[in-house]
Amino acid sequence: MNIIVIGAGYVGLVTGTCFAELGNQVTCIEVNEPKVNNLKKGILPIYEPNLLPMVTSNVEAGRLHFVTSFAAVAVDPDVIFIAVGTPSGEDGAANIAYVEEAARHIGDFIREDCVVVDKSTVPVGMADQVKALIQQALDKRQLSLTFDVVSNPEFLREGAAIEDFMCPDRVIVGLQSDRAKQIMLNLYTPILRSPERIYFMNVKDAEMTKYAANAMLATRISFMNEMSVLCERMGVDIENVRMGIGSDSRIGHAFLYPGCGYGGSCFPKDVRALMNMAESHGVDAMILKAVEKRNQIQKTVLPQKLATIFGEDLSGVLVGVWGLAFKPGTDDMREASSLVLIEEVIRRGGRVQAYDPEAMGVARQLLPEKWFKSGQLVFAANQYDALQDVDVLALVTEWKSFCYPDLTRMKGVMRRHLILDGRNQYNPAHMREAGFDYAGIGR
Questions:
Q1: Among all residues, which ones are annotated catalytic?
Q2: What fold is seen in the domain 2-201?
Q3: For the segment 33-74, what is each residue's pLDDT rounded down to a tens digit?
Q4: pTM of the model
Q5: CATH topology of domain 299-439
Q6: What residue ranges of the chain are covered by domains with CATH 3.40.50.720?
Q7: CA–CA separation, 409 vs 425, rounded Å?
Q8: Residues 308, 314, 318, 324, Cα dihedral to 10°
Q9: Distance in angstroms (rounded) separating the CA atoms of residues 300 and 396
């Protein structure tokens, strides 16, 4: 098929590249010209395992193209994916301006019947607005075409996006016509191990499914984080509790890991957007409000532990930080817990030495340059350099390279042998046997 993907960010780039890998002709439209030039050279705007070689090979094979406008598209598309950002507005609602702009451009461009697919996470009812905007543009052109607007939300985990796309556990498709259903089946049949794993439903149902799924996962995390606070106060080990309740087949183990708060591009934004939708329809989203509040509080857990140990004034305290990205396998720093920790340490007079395998470049752009110039914040060349003369190590992101560190080497470079484990990655008994003071989350 001939496919257009509007937006070459995380979702658009992964979607376009994977469809090209399946043999389709894919053109990604991205208005950011420097980004397009870099993509043509094999320079990606994001880090995602195994994505770069796939982009490179499909560009070389002539199946994947990057352009800055519809004017550069050479063929009429069978399917157009909208994969632009929908960031949170000040009130928590999703900003749909980029989706609306994409819809207008589609209406100005298309010359043949096609299917338009909302891949972006959009508010319930957005497909109707997209359809209306496209139709308005067609009416101005006095052109009569048949087009469908489909909701096909993405469920890609950063760090495992290629696997999730190529071997999905489910594909959600909201549509209204048999024609669109057949085209979406043709698109996804090559990667579906079982045809029963594609779920067809109404458009609004599909739009809501995306929000509800992320809100449920965020709720599980916040629930466990709240339980960890209670366990810590009562002398209970949350890890044993986690294993105990996770063994219940009705509950399961997924997303029951307590930590120092969730971040990223999906959970925070989507929970807030769903809260906004609830409020606009007169529903008090009590559970979602609690999920959001717990997560904000949870991001202060590590700074609170530092204050308990060293006092509110951290002058003279050097904190080593392992992990900056909101999760391993990505360089995404959006709403990362590390940002809260670093800001709090520096605000209280302390200094930070940090290391992350992938996210330091992105973090450098986000954090104030004055912190680097003053020496309050230093990015280390490797994980052990980040521990040189530190008073405490705070593990924030559970990268695999941090799983089994050289404890002898750590003791040799750290000034004080103290570990704050924000992801409960280490065994407390083993750490104490090795000569470290250890504090986890709810342990």
A1: 266
A2: Rossmann fold (3.40.50)
A3: 999 999 999 999 999 999 999 999 999 999 999 999 999 998
A4: 0.93
A5: Rossmann fold (3.40.50)
A6: 2-201, 299-439
A7: 18
A8: 70
A9: 12
